[in-house]
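Changelog-adjacent note: as of this version, every example in the card shows the full chain rather than a window. The one below runs 106 residues end to end.
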Amino acid sequence: ITRFLNRHPILPTKYASRIDCQRAYASNPRTIQDHLQKLGKVLQTYRYPPKAITHFDEKGFVMGISPRTRVVTRRGKKNPQVNQDGKREFITALEAVSADGFLYPP
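Full-length structure tokens:
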């Protein structure tokens, strides 16, 4: 690919981060908006107290995979991403906090 890029210097390249296909789908603004609308309806209907609402957040670390890959992209494209098959070994960190501010222990 280096020789190809040397022959075509007009093509911009950037380093792309890897992202699983499922995560790419979940990052879609329409998917997020649909989820938040449904969540709002459930919260209005059942009136859950803040202590009953818990947010879990995870951070996964892929073992043995370079986090960046050089790709050819459109000029001005920021933060390009590359899908991967998801068949990798992960280490995951998880945290949880309720809507009333209670932080669950690890």
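Structural remarks: The mean pLDDT is 81.
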